[in-house]
Structure formats: structure tokens, C-alpha cells
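W.,

You were right to be curious about this one. When I first looked at the sequence I had no strong expectations either way, so I just let the prediction run and decided to look at it fresh. Below is the sequence, 329 residues in total, followed by the output.
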Amino acid sequence: MKKLIALTTIAMLASSANAGHKCRGTVIRSGKHCQQSQVTYITTVHAAASPVAAHPAVKADIVDTAISAGSFKTLVAAVQAAGLVDTLKGAGPFTVFAPTDEAFAKLPAGTVESLLKPENKAKLQAILTYHVVAGKVLAADVVKLSGAKTVQGQQLDIQVANGKVSVDGANIVKTDIETSNGVIHVIDSVLLPADKDIVDTAVAAGSFKTLVAAVKAAGLVDTLKSTGPFTVFAPTDEAFAKLPEGTVANLLKPENKDKLIAILTYHVVAGKVMASDVVKIASAKTVNGKSAAVTVSDAGVMIDKAKVIATDIETSNGVIHVIDSVILP
């Protein structure tokens, strides 16, 4: 009799399993639903073994992530026009500070249309690569930096204030959108690299009139407008005014051109040396051939006896650091 009951129970279980579709959606609350619970359990095991469940969706690359987001149409169009699609779909990794469509809309009317023209491809590439940093820099790392060198070559200035992070004045509005080849941080403005050379930057500043006049008198304009890069420790007009009366007028005379060249080239270092690098060195070899002493103290950074009062003014062919006195070789 016990064997008959056992066989009947097994048959009932088998019958319930075969009719498993009837048990879908059943909430198991008591022992009377034990058969359904077994069917549910078997279904769960099969779902867990599914290849789809076992392998999470693969992340898209930077370009495809931007396309799928839908809020970077202008950026994607620019990347395509600049011929940078393959680069940003490459292995990387890259960190992209991505301006939204609204960010591009802030630019003067006609700017985007002009940049997308084939004849402006080089300029567009420079702007776009200025938004890209080599390596994967997550938000937790960004807030620890004061600057980041871009693929374009110039440095982005990073500021953290009142719980907000900005890059060259553009606010980061969303962070850590991870992709298969890097990470995207969303910004609310388009970043523009410096497009003036050292001479034109000094002229535009308006506080280096004496320096510009001296560069012209020394015949160094073409040199300081060339590719470089150069690092210039630039004395202000007030710095030149500290020299004994008549010194500048005397140096500007044609017969003193060689002496003027020696003084001016003592203010120039070959290569691009940002402030973060300057503070790590004890001296800097100048284009003049002699080395200027670098001293770092609580009072600030000194180049010989001149104090550095402003740093990292980037140009298209180097960087300018402003000093409060003329340094003499």
C-alpha cells in the first residue's frame, strides 16, 4: 500500500511538472503549492544558466555611446567632419570632456557651421582634441588635479569650488559615463584652445608694451612666432620701469642689439614648461645659453630675483609666465 501511495505521489509530481505553464505567476505561500515551487525552481535554474544572463551587456565605445545618448549630435557631427571617428573608437583609453548640443549652441552664430567646413578641418581637430585627455581619468581623480594635458598639447585648467568642478571655466554637469575605451564627463560649454602665438598674446594682453618693443628691436619676432614651443618669463611694463632711468631707451638703440638679444633670450626656455614643472626644478637653461635659478618658498616662485606673479598663459606655440622684474644674464 505504501508503495502504491509513493508511486501515485511521483506520478502527481511528474504530471505537475509537465503542466508547468499553469503554475506561472503562482505565489508560493504554503505547502500545498509545493509542486509549483519545484517548477518555479527549475525555471529559475535554467534562466541563470542562460548565456545572456551570465554575460552582462558589452559597453559601447566613446563614439557609439555619444550617439546613443542623443544629446551630443553636434559633437558627433564635428568628430565625423574632423576625421576623428576611428581615433575615438580605438583602444585608448581616453577621457573626453563632452560638450552637449546646448553647449555648442552657446557659440556665436555661424561658428559651428564654419568649423564643419572642409577648409577648417585642422582648426576643428585642434578644438576637439583639446577636449580629450589620454588615459582614463575618473571624477575621483579629476578633483585632485589642477590641470590636465590634452591630446591637442595644451593644458586644461581644473578648478574645484563649492562642490562643483569646472574645466577651463566650463562646468562638469555629469561624470563617469564609462565606455569600452574610456570615460566621458559632460560639460556645459565648448572649450577653446589658445590660437595666438607668444608675440600676439603679449600684444593682446596690453601689459607687455615694452617687452614687445624690445622683441621687435632685437629682431626676435619671427623666432617667437615660430613653432617652438617656448616658455617665456615675461616682464611687465612695470618690471621694465624698475630698471635705472634710460636703460630701456639705451637698449633699444641699434648699436646695442646684441646686448638686447642676450637679455631677452635669457627670459626664454626651449620647450613648454608649465608651472607644475617649474616648481620641481632648481634651474632652467635659457635660450641665451646660461641658466636662470629657480627658487620655491612660502613667498612664492622666484626666477633669479624676479617673482613669478602669473602662470600658465598658454599660447599656440608655448606658455608665458609673468614676472615682476627684468632678469639679467
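Here's what jumped out at me. The chain has three domains: 2-54, 62-187, 198-323. And, maybe more interesting for your project: Residues 198-323 form a domain with the FAS1 domain fold (CATH 2.30.180.10).

Coffee later to discuss?

I.
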